[in-house]
Amino acid sequence: xxxxxxxxxxxxxxxxxxxxxxxxxxxxxxxxxxxxxxxxxxxxxxxxxxxxxxxxxxxxxxxxxxxxxxxxxxxxxxxxxxxxxxxxxxxxxxxxxxxxxxxxxxxxxxxxxxxxxxxxxxxxxxxxxxxxxxxxxxxxxxxxxxxxxxxxxxxxxxxxxxxxxxxxxxxxxxxxxxxxxxxxxxxxxxxxxxxxxxxxxxxxxxxxxxxxxxxxxxxxxxxxxxxxxxxxxxxxxxxxxxxxxxxxxxxxxxxxxxxxxxxxxxxxxxxxxxxxxxxxxxxxxxxxxxxxxxxxxxxxxxxxxxxxxxxxxxxxxxxxxxxxxxxxxxxxxxxxxxxxxxxxxxxxxxxxxxxxxxxxxxxxxxxxxxxxxxxxxxxxxxxxxxxxxxxxxxxxxxxxxxxxxxxxxxxxxxxxxxxx
Length: 420
Ligand SMILES: CC(=O)N[C@H]1[C@@H](OP(=O)(O)OP(=O)(O)OC[C@H]2O[C@@H](n3ccc(=O)[nH]c3=O)[C@H](O)[C@@H]2O)O[C@H](CO)[C@@H](O)[C@@H]1O
Ligand SMILES: C=C(OP(=O)(O)O)C(=O)O
Fold this sequence. Notes:
single chain; 26% strand; peptidoglycan synthesis; UDP-n-acetylglucosamine1-carboxyvinyl-transferase, Chain; Enolpyruvate_Tfrase_sf; cell shape; cell cycle
């Protein structure tokens, strides 16, 4: 199993190319199942989740033709139905995103129920309710979601999401492209990845309005056409490198990063003392000044992203003063706290809040990654720590960061990957 060995205490300086967003790529690969015409995706990040999703699409007969390191043509003309196996869904919860497209295209679908994961229970009830509002019948039999469409297919309807779930909004939007008539999705998630999926679906022939707002309208059914779509840059990867610059007291230019997708994150970093400014290529992050902790609460987009909470906590640990971190999206997303404590962080947990007492000098130690963002937070802490940090279970990190160690090394970090 791979580990990362980090010699901390080096200031980062240089440029990092931000990859396409994993969380935009995954639903778009699922969306390829909707259409008989080919979909060319550009900017696919080289991460294991994308490989897993492409592999899952292939099990349905999607032909994946790699035409470049980050480009693939997905041809679902001869795709057919099958059961999404528990093993794929267990490894990657986003596998459940094939449910809507399969149901809408083939009239039925069987997808393993994902179950909980390290960060929370993560039910899929909102996905199921959204499909039911379009006329589907849904059951769970022996851990498998069994979904069926009435004779005549899905019919457009009004979907009111109890909370603005990203995945449920994507499921609803994808299924609605094949429903007859208009679908309205209320209390929709407004994330850039939802907007990017809508843009991709529109390029494929769909008619969608309002993506990026709380009210999305989809007019179906779609006449599909060949499409090419460039995946939006990964705002979570960009935010992670912005924190890497800050935690090492360095400067990084993030090429491709879009400040408008990081508005609240930028505001938080600036109030800590980090300077951010747009450049021709993306975003410059200057973390050379003194930093002090700021309170944050994670919220659905455009709020502070839960996917940057762990990284922020590493930064708050070395910044001066205290910072209160409230996690409101997932009920169990503090698995990194005991590991940060092993490096010397002073964090008191109380329910869904964590009080970080900053100004700590971190010292390297062996630590264990528990999930994707927890792993990268430990890498960030390792970059700031004196001595050697060994991050175990790096496969979590490889799910969502393209060549993290190489990108950091190019900017002056001392990191090596070893197989132990
Ligand atoms: C592949 C992908 O895009 N993953 C992102 C997506 O996950 P994901 O789409 O799973 O996240 P959701 O927005 O759906 O989840 C938000 C909250 O709603 C709850 N919920 C969700 C669905 C449902 O049917 N019932 C329910 O109760 C979840 O348990 C969670 O507490 O958005 C999350 C929130 O920004 C990010 O952390 C993930 O990185
Ligand atoms: C939680 C994440 O991903 P997923 O929803 O695929 O588990 C993440 O990207 O941080």
